[in-house]
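Anyone else keep sequences and structure tokens together like this?

Example one:
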Amino acid sequence: MSAPLPLTVPPPLPGLARGAEREGLDFEALRSAGIAALQQLCGERWTDFNAHDPGVTTLEQLVYSLTDLAYRTGFDMADYLTGPDGTIDYAGLALHPPEAVLPPAALTVDDYRRLLYGALPDLADIWIHASGAGLLAVDVMAVPELAHEPPAAAPQALRQRVRALYAAHRALGEDLLCVREVRPRPYYLRGEIDTCGERDPAEVLAQIVHDCGEYLSSGMAARRMRDVIAQGHAPEQLYDGPATQHGHVVARPAVADLVTVSELIGVIQRIDGVRRIRALAILDEHLQPCHAIARASADGSCPVLPFPDDDAKLELLRVAPEQGIEYGVSEQLVPPRPAWHVANRLLYDEARLELAKLRFEQRAFRGDAGQDGARYPLPQGRYRELRAYYSVQHEFPAVYGIGKYGLSESAAPARQVQARQLQGFLYPMEQLMANYLQNLQDLRTLFATDDRDPRTYFAQYLEGAALPGMAELYRDGDVPGRVHRALARHDDYHERKGRVYDYLLALHGDAFPQTALRRFNQYHPYTTAAWLLDAKRRLLEAQVALSAGRGRGGDYTLAPDASGAVAPLAWRVAILLGCDGGERSRSLLPALDGRPVTLLEHEEDAAPPPAAPDWLPVPPPRGAAPVPGVEPERLLPDSGVPEGLLRDGALLSSYRLAQDGGDYLLYVQAGAQWRLLGRYGRRADAIASAHAAIARLAAVNRQCEGLHLVEHILLRPVDPAREPSFNAAFYQARLSVVLPRWTLRCADHAFRNFVEDTVRENCPAHLQPAFLWLAPGAMARFEALQDAWRAALRAYHTAADADMTALAGPLHDASGALVAFLREYRTEPT
């Protein structure tokens, strides 16, 4: 059998016509290239390359088959990824829609404004101010109702929702200082406006109040997602910023701090139905004229344009159809005041209903969760039976006797043997082409992120109609199995699958750069390639969470063991270090089957080692996986396990066998001490027990490896005056990374340097991490303090406003205790 096809596309054959649409479909170019290659290889031995020559006939049939292969290679990529059910498993192929992978985490003030405005329909306006030291202050104003302008949402409930949403999307090393409710500052319009056309004056009046009120806002506007997509915006433009839940939120161009009458005139003139603006002025809340409206105010107020609610305000703005006269010129045509007052009140009553309709439509639009379905359509393919192979032998002239009908029964035996010889000659080339088609069919299996099929080369068994007459040429036995085994000799699954994962990571602009991780494979000495491949797969499957959220902090309003409570930085670093888990917070203290394991930091006396000449080696397990065995009874006693035993006991080189009469003694070396683990009647039992002990201790070591990430900004005191030694620099742009020092890898200073370099490379550049390598006792103390602090932090930030004062004391005490611990063990980075 021929060598399998490589992943890369081979270079074009020499002599192919460059003008062809696709060189693989150009029969004449392929034929010419084949003859040129034959002339070069055969020299003077074969000079007849005319069409009647059997060799040329064979070449032409093979070239014709190659054009079929090239044709099947030219379909749209979606066709190759479509399954028999007509769908594409995008998640299983690590191919995510634009709305999942393109929106980044919120970084700037505008990002947070867009995020909060798009997620909270009850939010009329929002302002965010950077207070320094990584703290943000948020001012919010709820959407008012129409009647007496009370907020549509309770102020306390709105502030809680803002705090919860910010906590879920906050950047690493940042926090929310406060959320304040902005007081509305009313203004009114006075003037006379003529309308025209068929639009009702009440609709025009309502539109004037609505649009002018929107213009006074801070500059946020929401648009329907489907409308933005229909306008032809590319995904990278639409998702240039954090994802918003309700519509596409844009910030209007920068505007001046003061809104003048001329600007409001421009807004009104753009309204359909407005004919002429005869006069327009701005009045403050005391109905006194003012030249302009200040958008922002130091007293915590925001300008609004409420709907008039009393008789005096109903007469300020007159909106009526144009009468062809100027008011004040012909007083005889002006209606009497009582009649006009009644008409104007009716107009305003109708306008109130129209304005309520406008605000209802806007609120319904902003609260419509169904907009999430308005997305860019994903490619849809057509399932094709690409593996179906039609033998080239059917295309040969019938005189060759290798087609569907073969030779006649009267053919001489020698002639039949010649036909079988030709079939055997063509078989390797046909098997290669059939395997090529099978690889096309299984392309989605090759790029899948699961490992259910441990192959990257695929083959099919040719017999029957696919290759007539071949059953008589096959040797007896498992022919399909021999085909696959022959191909498997060239299939380095972990290397090739790793290159596939590298390609998929590159599609997302990511990579797995941890080539140095091979040095620290103490727990996977026989399965290093599979271990690294699994780390790549985990990084690939977590792209949605780790790509956009790389600079995001953990959500402290969730339970500590919830997936969103862990900062993506900690999760990513755990994957890059080859640690188990990482997506959830867990204790790093050793445990076995759910029960804690006590680690002894000081070695105890142990049995003396046997004499060196009596030692027998412990061979490695057969194959990649350890041989199942019985764990020694003295391995993990309840009285405690020395740290040295936990570390060195995970290495095969630490075990020795000694003979004592007819028994075998199993020893393990932990540091400078030796420990007798058991006595066995058979050597095989002692070896199996050693392998079982290694597997168990390696699992305990892996369970202990991980990291805790503490953001100092979250430890700041609620009231700095209560902390006598308050040091603001300790809380600004600082992280503490807490790790165990007792495991096999973490005790290695080279691995510690590797861990610290990995954290620094993936940490945001403005944050300064420090590392605490703790002993088991110190780690237990830290985790207890951290659990108490997290519980107090969560209770404080999820409480109602009235309860936050009472919860500030417990939070202050829990934070202070953890700060004292970090200052005790923290080593400042150089």
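And example two:
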Amino acid sequence: MTDPARTPTSPARFGLTETRSGELLRAAGWWDGRRPSDGNEPILWSLSRSPDPDLALLGVDRVREALGDRWAALDEALRTNDVLRGRLLAVLGSSTALSDFLAANPDRWTLLADAEPVSAESFAPALVAAVDGLTGADAVRALKIEYRALLCRIAAEDLAHVAEPDLRYVSYDDVAGLLSDLAVAALRAALDVAYREVPRADECTLAVIAMGKCGARELNYVSDVDVVFVGEGDTGVATRLASTMMQVAGQACFEVDAALRPEGKAGALVRTLDGHASYYRRWARTWEFQALLKARPVAGDAELGQRYLDVVGPMVWTAAEREDFVPDVQAMRRRVEDNVPVGLADRELKLGRGGLRDVEFAVQLLQLVHGRGDEELRIPTTTAALAALGRGGYVGRTDAADFGRAYRFLRTLEHRLQLQKLLRTHLFPADDDAACLRWLARASGLQAEGGLSEAQVLLAEFRKRANQVRRLHEKLFYRPLLQAVANVPTEALRLTTTEAENRLAALGYAAPDGALKHIEALTRGVSRRARIQSALLPVLLDLLAETPDPDGGLLAYRRVSEALAETPWYLRLLRDEGTVVDRLAALLGTSRLVPDLLVRAPEVLRLLADTDGLVGRDPMTIGNPLRSTVSRYNDLDRAVTAARSLRRQELLRIASGDLLGLVTLRTVCVSLSEVWVAVLQAALDAVVRTTGERQASIAVIGMGRIGGRELGYGSDADVVFVCEAAPGVTDSDAVRYASAVVEKVRRLLSAPSQDPALQVDADLRPEGRQGPLVRTLESYRAYYAQWAELWEAQALLRARFIAGDADLGARFMDLVEPVRYPAAGLDAASVREIRRIKARVEAERLPRGADPSLHTKLGRGGLADVEWTVQLLQLQHAHEVPALRTPSTVRGLRAAAEAGLMTRDDMVALKESWITATRARNAIVLVRGKPGDQLPTTGRDLAAVAGVMGHSRDPGEFLDAYRRTTRRARAVIERVFYGS
């Protein structure tokens, strides 16, 4: 029984708007003027779901008139056969061209009634049979009708689910494959006709090679079919045969384009196999190898066609080695895009930004670069190749899926637009063409949703997919890693061969067999991870070969990769960000400190792609996030663990920027100092929070390098502690409480760890190691007034409040001001005493066997020489030269020169020496992964330190330059410090 709610009162209920629609429905016998005629309601509901119900109804009327008395059979079939109903009404509502065909050949409707899916195997027999024995116009006419009938059959299956949602959905890939197979069948039928028309055709052998979309089995409804011909025997006859085939197919089915042949339209239509081979070896340009990617023998002599592939195929997979291959392909895509008319660029489905060519060029470039070493990528079809790139890890899974969906969507739109009039078009409708947008949306299976019309849904989806394509195209097509991979010789991509071992030796790997073991471990198996590593390693091996320690770098890369094996973004980052690969290789092949930190702070790896994120932070505020984060933890162990973790991240970030030459020495030293201060402050706050009642205020005074903000990677934190009793608490209880807190802080920070040590050194306190760890402010006042020694005044020159109670710290600094800057300067005896102490340090503390000319701290012209010189001048003159009152060595030097205490040339010599020694000392830690003051004199450590110092080409020149710089400084020190 018919549902009254669905009973229409007019044709408009079925989406019909034409004034003649009621008349046409009555003529078909489907409507009596008030409601559907008996049994016809399913037809009308299918009609209403057609992309254009009015167009479909008009097509039905034309077919009805053409059938005449035979209409009854079709009418009955439409009532009972939902397959026929969905196919016919969808085709008639989508394509005026196919409607014309069915009106001219009305009995062909029976092709659409077969419930079985169309079989590509039937195409060639049907088309060849249609032209059997025919030539000339008769053959063209017969081929045209049979080709159009089969095209209609494919379109019917493609569209049927639109009108009848329960019918089978045919994917874009299947439709494109069927269209390609139909084109191949048409070429074979046309060649069959040509063999009958061309005299002496048996005196030659001809093979037809499909190129482009036909070769890749991704043809459109309307498209040129690109071909190349290869012949043997009489090439003149073969040329006439090929030309005739092109004419027959062109008049009956589609244009056959042979412009992709060697030398293009100016070249011979048919060449021998040797002629093709010679051309591609000597003259072919980059784009011609790109075109060969889709070559496929489809007609004529199969054996000759296969031999053609055997000859040119290997050339395709070495094309990426050509000079400037990647830039050539990228430039070609830009030229194609530049030729799109400006007003149509956003609507051009094929050539515009975010169009089909964006996908195809990106996929083909990735294939040609990576397919040299991975045969699974040697697939001509775009969607299948994209899936293989995703499986192999050359493209991220999400990116591959998004790219594939967007490509299929755009190709489906292209198919629907071409079906409408069977014209070659790639132009998306204008935004204001509502009727066309609605028709295209419905033909593509889109429905109104969320208050949006079909046209609005289509526009939103089109823009989303086009933007998605463009974003992914720019990400993949211009990926810096592509050029690096392309630069690796093809044989080097096969990493486990003997040739690879020889290549590793040639690149400078000291232990090629060991390197191969690392490579094997990283690429073992068939996992996605192994595939990505296989793509990355050839590039990394070349990059590491340019570093001071390729073997150590490769080992470090293996360690990092194994440690981060379960980190989902790690390999994806390396694959997608060429800058990261370049920088990581430079770091791993130079430093042993970086990989140790990296396995425990992998998040810093992301910053290698972002220079501003890596080095753009203000060093004076670098510790704020650390202090803020740690302050959230009430549990002491968790607080200290968080502080260590954040310090590790910052240390790795600073070291990476330093090694890559992206930051100044001052930035490095200030950053390291402020991170240390933040850790100390955070640990002190955490201990105080968890200790119970606060019995004293505590201030931490930075001394030495941390006081001067001159900390290096291997420096301890020299500090002294001062406390002040809380109200109602005795000084002895306050000192006891503060000492317990300080001891706990030192114990927590110095606990065993894989990170660089966090050693809090309080040996510069009054009385040194024999003195109490913590004193009250008044105790310091009394001690400095009565007992302070000259070395203690000198140590206070770099004192600076760094943590704890700021008011107490400020009062301590006021207290020590007259101690470190004595009002009368130094008398001659004190100067002699400082010189004596310095000479004793040189004689006794320089390690046995150390080279004084290469010891960065205690050697001639080293750090101690410069710093003692500045400190002597401060003790002598700071009472009258306020600018000398600074904990900074460099600022002290500058102030001394400005005050006339040394010449500008002397200041420059000392400054250069101090900076050189500081950088060298930092480089030693970065390279060796542990503190050290003695510069290496041979081997890869020397090469690495020299590289960090900017002397990568000649490590010996670095040592000479270091000695020259420090020697000049020592001469100044002999005059200024020792008074010689």
